[in-house]
Structures are given as structure tokens and as C-alpha cells.
Write a structure and sequence with these properties.
This protein is α/β, with parallel strands linked by helices. It has one domain. The chain has helices at residues 3-6, 23-26, 50-62, 108-117, 139-146, 175-181, 186-196, 205-214, 220-232, 248-252; strands at residues 12-16, 19-21, 36-40, 77-81, 100-102, 122-126, 149-153, 164-168, 234-235, 238-245.
């Protein structure tokens, strides 16, 4: 729940078609019931969508500020790993562990079922080709009823043919991706848990166990590649990522 004190609107700058934009341009008409979901199909791929994830988190708290304090809760964000785990993204506060949905199949029907089950309203997908696929009966209609925005991202942080960009303006915006690329060890979390009595995720024994379970998802080379990709688009410790908005019905054909 560290993001309640880490991320705020003034830490991000938005560009829409090369012009200065706002958070509302990315997530128009965000409301208290919005839920963000991201589809993952490559090791640590969500790092390339760091700012989109974090901007969704900011919207979640800004629309109802008591979520940061009096009724402190984790953001309604969900990561859908296709076929297997691609490294835990829980440092972004995809927590508790049920917020990381590890699908044992890449079957597009199962993927959309999982997205619909969690009532996702804002969906990010990796840059995947459109296919002529058919989802289960009425699942497409259910998704079109619920999902209000869809985005294409790249694990590298730079998508082809972008129409908007998000730039971090504070070094704090790079804290979470660094933790995803190189998460704390289970032993470190356990030590914090003893000291802090598990009051936050970062000092929770369940978090330590989750890190341990997911540690085998990716190898040292995957982590090195993710770190290099992040460094390649970094300038003075800050990163500018690009994205592309797409119609929801088109996004469903890329699952």
C-alpha cells in the first residue's frame, strides 16, 4: 500500500498527439468503480507500461481521497499473465496475490472470461496482432458493456505508431519498476515483517511467500534485459513511455 504515499498527479506529464494533455485525456470520465487490467505475455512485460499502471493508480485514489488514508485500500488493478507467470508485478501494488491472475492457458476465451470476471473497465494489452477469433457466447457483449478504454503498450516502453505518451517528472516514478525488475528477497520481507508486524504489504509474510513462489517465473537474463530496456529510454533518471489507444472491440481480437 506504499503507493498511497508514493504516487500523485503532479509526478506525470501527458502528451496527446504531440500536444500537452491531462490525465483525463488518458482516462476520460474515471469514476469510483473503474478497474484497471493489464495483459502480460512476456517476462516482466508490465514494466513497459509502468506509467500507465501508475496513472491508473493515481486516478483510483484521486477520485476518492479517503482511499489513501481513512479507508486505506489497495488499488483495483489486475495483471493477467497468459499461459504462465511472467514475474510478479506485485511491487506496483497488484496485491493481494489474487490481483495477479496466472492463467494456465493462452486460450483467448479463458483470457476474456478472466477479464470479465473482474469487471475490468480500462484494459491494456501488449502489442499483439489482431486475429479472427471468436469468444464464448455473450462474453464479447459483456466486455463491450464494461470496458471503457483500451490501450496498446510495449514491454520496451515504446510502442509503434503511438498517439500519446506519459512521462515521469519525479524519480519516485521509477521506484516501482525497479522493484519489479529486482524485487526484495523473501528473507528481506520476512525481516521487515518481524519489525513492522505485517502492517503493510512490504512487511507481510504472505508477500514474502508470494515473492518466493513467483521467483522462478523469470531468470537473471530476463531481469537484465528488462533493466537494459528501461535504461535505454531513461534520461536523467526519468522515463517517457508511449502508447496507442484502440477501440475496445479491436483489443478483444488481440487477446
Amino acid at each position: 500500500m506504499h503507493v498511497t504515499k508514493l504516487l500523485f498527479p503532479d509526478m506525470f506529464a501527458v502528451e496527446i498527439d504531440g500536444q500537452a494533455g491531462t490525465v483525463c485525456d488518458v482516462f476520460p470520465d474515471w469514476n469510483v468503480h473503474d478497474r484497471f487490467g493489464i495483459v502480460l505475455d512476456s517476462p516482466l512485460g508490465g514494466v513497459g507500461a509502468t506509467h500507465l499502471i501508475q496513472l491508473a493508480i493515481v486516478c483510483f485514489y484521486e477520485i476518492k481521497p479517503q482511499r489513501r488514508s481513512a479507508r486505506a485500500i489497495y488499488p483495483e488493478i489486475y495483471a493477467f499473465h497468459l499461459g504462465r507467470g511472467f514475474g510478479t508485478h506485485s511491487p506496483f501494488d497488484f496485491w493481494p496475490a489474487r490481483r495477479e491472475v496466472i492463467l494456465k492457458t493462452e486460450d483467448h476465451r479463458e483470457v476474456l472470461d478472466a477479464i470479465n470476471d473482474r469487471a475490468i473497465t480500462r484494459l491494456a494489452i501488449p502489442n499483439r496482432p489482431r486475429r479472427e477469433i471468436v469468444h464464448r457466447r455473450k462474453e464479447t457483449e459483456a466486455a463491450l458493456e464494461t470496458i471503457r478504454s483500451a490501450f496498446v503498450y510495449s514491454p520496451t516502453g515504446r510502442v509503434a505508431d503511438p498517439d500519446f505518451a506519459i512521462r515521469g517528472t519525479s524519480p519516485k516514478t521509477e521506484y516501482n519498476p525497479k522493484q519489479v525488475i529486482k524485487p526484495p528477497s523473501a528473507q528481506e520481507v520476512e525481516a521487515r515483517a518481524v519489525a513492522a508486524k505485517g502492517l503493510v504489504k512490504e512487511a507481510d509474510l504472505d508477500y514474502a511467500r508470494w515473492l518466493q513462489v513467483r521467483s522462478a517465473d523469470v531468470g537473471a537474463q530476463d531481469r537484465a534485459r528488462a533493466a537494459s530496456a528501461r535504461e535505454a529510454i531513461s534520461c536523467d533518471g526519468l522515463v517517457r513511455e508511449t502508447y496507442r489507444r484502440i477501440p475496445v472491440d479491436e483489443a478483444l481480437l488481440c487477446l
